[in-house]
Amino acid sequence: MRPAAPRRLEITAARALGALAVLAAGCYEFPPVIPKDLVGSPAAEGWPPLAVYHPDSFHARNRWFHRQWSGRSLEGRIVRAHADEPLGLLSSPSRVDEAEILALLRSLDAEPVRELGAAGERARICDALFRGDLLREAARIRAEWPAGGLRDEILKLLEAVGARGPALTAGDERERALVPPPLRGGPWSEASMPSSAGLLPSPADPRPTRVFRTAAPNSSSAIVRGFASECWLIERSGDGESRRVYRFDRAEWLHGREPWRLVPGEAEIVIRSPLDPLQALRGPAAQLCAGCHCGR
User: Fold this and answer.
1) What is the C-alpha to C-alpha distance for residues 29 and 17, in angstroms, rounded to an integer?
2) Do residues 209 and 271 make contact, with C-beta atoms less than 8 angstroms apart?
3) 21-62: per-residue pLDDT in tens?
4) For residue 126, how far is the Cα from the chain centroid?
5) What is the DSSP code string of the chain?
6) 258-274: average pLDDT
7) Range with the lowest mean pLDDT among 103-117, 134-148, 242-256?
8) How far apart are CA 48 and CA 36, in angstroms?
9) Which distant-in-sequence residues (6+ apart) come within 8 Å of 250 by Cβ?
10) Closest listed residue to residue 156, CA positions, set 177, 170, 172, 141
């Protein structure tokens, strides 16, 4: 009766082959499906990253901006970044956020220093804008992010990479290319610095503020926050006052278009309170501008 053993082995092998055939057929019948919200898939919201510092959307500089300047949906998903937001929007980073940001900063830290001497003026200004954003984000994160996690490592790299090249400073000749539209003509004169705490450089918002005015009787005021950042305009006439907000769009500048965008009065924006730099105010642009009397 021993010869029956090979027969049982043949039956077992045949069954195994049959099972493999069913599995193989199943793989062809049910192909893998990419989730619609998977970051990197064509359907992911806010993807690919905006080209704000470098023409390649997937360059580490742009991907860093994508993490820092993107809002989050109610489900915690990343939504599209805004190239005209003065400061980053990420205030409660997840572990994934921190790990991704740290990896990107390490990649940027390992980059050779770019030779910008022969580059065009636009490339040099893009580089200066990038380094200024790094340093401002370091200040904001130090003031706002909770301690612990990867925060200290992120801060160290933000400051190291940001200091590797010149950022825009007061009196920089490159600043002339970034003048907001309201100040490009007319008899403007610079006024004294505002005394309001929220408009002075602070640990949470190191941007300087400059105030410009036109002569009476129809005097107007322009409050310029930072360089290539935002401008609040109050125009006075016999009919009253009109208020407008301009914001600098990094992506438009990179692509050679007018970078200053006039924010529609009804559009909701986020600004730092003129009274308290740690307080973020959200609302329609016209309403927020109307509530500020620090430029008078």
Assistant:
1) 18
2) no
3) 444 444 434 444 445 555 544 446 678 899 999 999 999 999
4) 14
5) -TTHHHHHHHHHHHHHHHHHHHHHHHHHHS-----TT-TTSTTSTT-SPP-SSSSSTTSHHHHHHHHHHEEE-TTS-EEEE-TT-SS----S--HHHHHHHHHHHHHHHHSPPP--SSS-HHHHHHHHHHHHHHHHHHHHHHHHSPSSTTHHHHHHHHHHHHTTSPPP-TT-GGGGGG--GGGSSS--EE-PPP--GGGS--SS----EEEEEPPSSS--EEEEETTTTEEEEEEEETTEEEEEEEEE-HHHHHTTS--EEEEPTTSEEEEE-SS-TT-EEEEEHHHHHHT--TT-
6) 87
7) 103-117
8) 14
9) 52, 53, 65, 83, 84, 126, 129, 228, 259
10) 141
**Contacts (Cβ under 8 Å, ≥6 apart) of 135:** 158, 159, 162, 163, 167, 206
Tell me what pLDDT residue 236 has.
79
Asked if residues 66 and 90 have their Cβ atoms less than 8 Å apart, the reply is no
Judge contact between 171 and 190, C-beta under 8 A.
no
- Per-residue pLDDT tens over the stretch 190-214: 988 767 888 888 888 888 888 999 8
Report angle CA 195, 197, 202 to the nearest 5 degrees. 120
What are the pLDDT digits (tens) for 107-129? 999 987 765 555 677 888 899 89
